[in-house]
């Protein structure tokens, strides 16, 4: 009994060594065979729209299509997928060709090998006679198992059955068509508001008429300007001769007045010839002659001034007409330009509408084809991250290794103790050790001293 | 080195007051130091007659020096050494010195209630004289104790122990050396060559045959003499 109680104290080194060996073995086991987690997805698969009634098994096989896995491979690698333990990685890295062969495929292999591993980890089955396809994916990393399975199923829905995506494309194409049609209608409304449609020939004829009228008006205006200059010159001549005192007759300013004036002058010459130059009659005649002279000048000047004024009025009207015609030409040009812009815009919108209609037609065709291949596959339950591993995880392995190690260590210690021969009696001392027994003490009731 | 300290000490040990007193130059003044109180040592010293006889036979002339060592800690070597000292004093009328050469697990000061002071290590290091480290053994006027040092000291050598024993020659007739366990410490077997013999203490049911053989071999290889064994807790 005493030996059993002292066993842990006496053999602690052996026990700890055995436990350490078992723990190391557990670590090695865990490193060589990492834990494996399995995620699951359920898909409801219906018959295709083409009426072929493709069986659920055929649909299920599409999930394991290498082409599908290759398509989603970049997304899978982006999510990781390295699951090898340290031991396997060390073996692969430093073990040479044999080490790599023993370690198997790992996270650093080529895309092809990685895809093969993914395909090996994928299990697809049909649940009984139903149209439910159950896909399971096992991997050493729980999150990757769920993510990868969801990616594969999503890829299956996108590529193996293109209907959903095609419908989305169709929807986008129809939206583009509606937008283009609305824009074209807006252009039409704007054109209607801008006025009637423009006939190029009519515009050209109208423009020619305006330009001809404008040329005549400009020519007339030039003539009037010349006449005015002459009238102005005459007016200035009348005023100049009057101011210089050389004014005698208004000429054709007033023939009647001029004739009366001349008669006065003749009468005075007669009186002067009669020697009656200082007579009251001659003086009255001189006053009348002066009065007639003033009247003659005023009348002549008024006539010249009226001529200038009349020419001014005419010239103003001509210039106003010219400006109006020029404005008409500019308005006509602007209208033509606006209508041309609208015409171009409408042409562009019409082209966009045509292209959108073409896209809608193509999307319709693709959607029809996609739905035929899809067969109405629908995800019943998505993959969730598995909590428990199929193969015991590191904690379980280490706990088991530790427990077995303790048991084995205790067994080893007991075995070693059983093999250990001790000195129990005085005879043992002399017989086994060859020394004389000097004293034999039954019990020493002393506290431990040394 | 020691000078006249030892004769004075021994003379004072048998003073007219009937008490054990230490000389002032030792440093403890006239304080009483009871070394062996009744009831502390329950081991009958008579059981050590065989050991004592063997030790006396090992050195029939001059001072007898016997070491007591166990194979491992806790096998009763110190208790045996104390009982052997009493046996030598009482049964053989010897003046005995009990040397505690077990620095690593020293306990004589605690067991005997000795005050802190210089010890064997200090003597070996020549920090104090031998007389400055010796303590009287209470009513056992033939027993003096050389306890281990309080402070840490270096490993003990056979030459150092032999020098100490030579200085005791003529003043005591027997020296009982409480040694450290043989197996854990290398220097224990080394000092055995300075002694007339060594008694190995083994605990029945605990000491293995292999350990016993190893202990004997270590002592012999170091030049020591194994007088025999003391079996404690015989089954």
Model description:
The complex is a heterodimer of chains A (450) and B (235). Chain A has 450 residues and is an alpha+beta fold. Among the domains of chain A are: 34-161 and 375-390; 200-363. Chain A is built from 15 helices and 5 strands. Chain A has a 4-stranded antiparallel sheet with strand order 2-3-1-4. Chain A starts with a helix and ends in a 9-residue tail after the last strand. By secondary structure, chain B is α/β, with parallel strands linked by helices. Chain B has a single domain (5-232), classed as Rossmann fold (3-Layer(aba) Sandwich), CATH 3.40.50. Chain B is 34% helix and 17% strand. Chain B has helices spanning 5-13, 49-58, 77-92, 108-112, 120-124, 130-133, 158-168, 186-191, 209-221, and strands at 64-70, 96-101, 135-136, 143-146, 174-179, 197-203, 226-232. A 7-stranded mixed sheet of chain B has the order 3-4-2-5-1-6-7, with helices on both faces. The radius of gyration of chain B is 17 Å and the shape is globular. Chain B starts with a helix and ends with a strand. The relative contact order of chain B is 0.20. Residues 1-39 of chain B have low confidence and may be disordered. Chain A binds chain B through residues 2-3, 6, 420-426, 428-429, 432-446, 448-450, and chain B through 41-43, 47-48, 50-51, 54, 70, 73-74, 76-80, 102, 105-107, 111, 178, 180, 199-200, 202, 204-210, 212-213, 216, 226-235. Strand 5 of chain A pairs parallel with strand 7 (226-232) of chain B, so a sheet runs across the interface.
């Amino acid at each position: 009994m005493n030996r059993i109680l002292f066993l842990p104290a006496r053999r602690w080194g052996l026990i700890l060594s055995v436990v350490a060996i078992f723990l190391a073995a557990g670590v090695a086991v865990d490193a060589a065979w990492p834990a494996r987690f399995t995620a699951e997805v359920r898909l409801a698969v219906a018959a295709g729209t083409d009426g072929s009634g493709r069986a659920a098994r055929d649909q299920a096989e599409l999930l394991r299509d290498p082409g599908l896995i290759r398509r989603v491979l970049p997304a899978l690698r982006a999510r990781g997928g390295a699951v090898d333990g340290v031991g396997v990685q060390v073996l692969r890295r430093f073990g040479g060709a044999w080490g790599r062969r023993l370690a198997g495929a790992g996270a650093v292999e080529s895309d092809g090998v990685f895809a093969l591993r993914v395909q090996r980890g994928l299990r697809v089955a049909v649940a009984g006679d139903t149209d439910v396809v159950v896909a399971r994916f096992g991997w050493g990393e729980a999150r990757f198992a769920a993510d990868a399975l969801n990616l594969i199923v999503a890829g299956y829905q996108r590529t193996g059955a293109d209907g959903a995506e095609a419908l989305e494309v169709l929807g986008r194409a129809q939206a583009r068509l509606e937008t283009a049609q609305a824009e074209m209608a807006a252009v039409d409304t704007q054109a209607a508001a801008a006025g009637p449609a423009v006939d190029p020939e009519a515009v050209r004829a109208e423009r020619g008429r305006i330009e001809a009228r404008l040329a005549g008006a400009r020519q007339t205006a030039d003539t009037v300007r010349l006449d005015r200059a002459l009238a102005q010159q005459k007016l200035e001549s009348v005023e100049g001769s009057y101011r210089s005192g050389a004014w005698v007759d208004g000429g054709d300013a007033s023939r009647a007045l001029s004739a009366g004036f001349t008669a006065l002058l003749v009468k005075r010459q007669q009186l002067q010839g009669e020697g009656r130059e200082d007579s009251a009659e001659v003086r009255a005649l001189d006053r009348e002659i002066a009065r007639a002279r003033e009247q003659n000048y005023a009348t002549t000047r008024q006539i010249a001034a009226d001529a200038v004024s009349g020419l001014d009025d005419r010239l103003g009207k001509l210039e106003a007409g010219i400006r109006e015609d020029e404005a008409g030409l500019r308005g006509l040009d602007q209208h033509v330009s606006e209508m041309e812009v609208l015409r171009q815009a409408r042409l562009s919108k019409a082209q966009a509408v045509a292209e959108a209609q073409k896209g809608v037609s193509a999307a319709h065709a693709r959607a029809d084809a996609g739905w035929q291949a899809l067969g109405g596959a629908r995800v019943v339950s998505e993959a969730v991250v598995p909590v428990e591993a199929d193969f015991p995880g590191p904690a379980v392995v280490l706990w088991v290794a530790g427990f077995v190690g303790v048991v084995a260590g205790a067994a080893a210690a007991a075995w070693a103790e059983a093999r250990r021969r001790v000195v129990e009696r005085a005879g043992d001392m002399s017989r086994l050790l060859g020394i004389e027994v000097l004293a034999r003490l039954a019990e020493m009731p002393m506290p431990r001293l040394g | 080195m020691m000078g006249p300290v030892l004769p004075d000490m021994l003379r004072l040990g048998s003073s007219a007051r009937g008490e054990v007193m230490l000389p002032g130059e030792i440093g403890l003044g006239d304080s009483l130091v009871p070394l062996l109180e009744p009831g502390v040592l329950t081991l009958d010293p008579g059981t050590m007659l065989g050991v004592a006889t063997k030790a006396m036979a090992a050195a029939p002339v001059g001072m007898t020096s016997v070491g007591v060592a166990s194979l491992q800690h806790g096998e009763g070597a110190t208790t045996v050494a104390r009982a052997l000292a009493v046996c030598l004093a009482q049964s053989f009328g010897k003046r005995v010195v009990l040397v505690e050469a077990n620095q690593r697990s020293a306990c004589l000061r605690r067991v005997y209630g000795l005050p802190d002071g210089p010890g064997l290590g200090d003597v070996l290091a020549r920090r104090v004289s031998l007389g400055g480290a010796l303590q009287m053994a209470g009513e056992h006027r033939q027993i003096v104790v050389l306890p281990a040092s309080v402070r840490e000291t270096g490993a003990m050598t056979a030459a150092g122990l032999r020098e100490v024993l030579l200085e005791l020659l003529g003043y005591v007739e027997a020296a009982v050396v409480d040694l450290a366990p043989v197996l854990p410490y290398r220097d224990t077997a080394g000092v055995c060559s300075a002694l007339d013999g060594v008694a190995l203490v083994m605990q029945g049911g605990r000491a293995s045959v292999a350990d016993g053989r190893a202990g004997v071999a270590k002592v012999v290889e170091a030049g020591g003499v194994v007088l025999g064994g003391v079996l404690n807790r015989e089954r």
